[in-house]
Amino acid sequence: VRVRFRVRVRAGVSGRRPSPNPNPISPSSLELVSYAEMEASARDITAALRPYGIPCIGDGDTGYGNAINVKRTVQGYAATGLAAIMIEDQVAPKRCGHTKGKSVTNREEAFSRVQAACDARDELVAQGANDILILARTDARGPLGLDEAIERCQKFREIGADITFLEAPQTVEEMRRYCTEVTGPKLANMLEQGKTPILSPAELADVGFSIAAYPLTLLSAAIKAQENALALLKATYDDPDTPTPSVDDLGLQTFENVQDVVGFPKYWDEEERYRIS
């Protein structure tokens, strides 16, 4: 049962900041955000991660246009400090790889995108600019079959992609075959309740994967926690005799921990450092 108050606002998240959006689907899942919005998001994210030395992979989607646009996207993402960029072979506008209705480009266009991305990377290195890895993704498994998806990944590596990503293999055997027949580092997409079996990190390593992504784990957990908390609060609104839910009932963090997570202690330390007597 979904909890709905009289005023309902859903956040359309492109990685930057929440905004009122009547569409309950994340715009980034359907390529409803532009290159400029994604590039701005990347700057915010890499700035937040930089003090901790945490690398970040940016989703370049389909490159936002033709091969020239792909090169511009790679150059822009590299300038933000992203460690890698993912470029895929879906027909624009792309969509989540585990949902219906997706289709892929022909081989020629798919390979042209990856070639442009690798050329942009190499040109940046030659100029002494920010280096960036190319993560080439194919969604061909669904519409065209596993053989085609593996052959595309093999060609991506031949072109020069640093990492490959075959989206939505449907069995462990398919995952193992991909890892056996394609060289180089490979990414596994661990999307709960999606098309791909969920394996532990040790199992993924045994199959042959080097990187694992958990794209919806935190979002799904957050949605469930928020809906549960809202249901409890709504119950007190509907029935004044309902006891006010406790912090434990609502599943809340302590206020002290919330302050720590959002950075108040660091701010207070800096404030004290520059305090004028």
Question: What can you tell me about this protein's structure?
Answer:
By secondary structure, this protein is α/β, with parallel strands linked by helices. Helix content is 46%, strand content 9%. The protein has eleven helices and six strands. The strands form two sheets. Strands 1-2-3-4 form a four-stranded parallel beta sheet. It has a two-stranded parallel sheet with strand order 5-6. Strand 5, helix 7 and strand 6 form a beta-alpha-beta unit. The longest helix has 22 residues. It is globular and about 65 Å long.
| Basic shape | globular
| Rg over CA atoms | 22 Å
Helix/strand/pairing category: alpha/beta
Strand segment count: 6
Strand order, sheet with most strands:
1-2-3-4
Q: What's the overall average pLDDT, rounded?
A: 87
Poorly predicted residue ranges: 1-27
Biggest sheet record: 4 strands, parallel
Beta-strand percentage?
5-15%
How helical, in percent, are the residues?
Answer: 40-55%
Helix-strand sequence: HEHEHEHHEHEHEHHHH
Number of helices: 11
Beginning-to-end CA distance, first to last residue: 56 Å
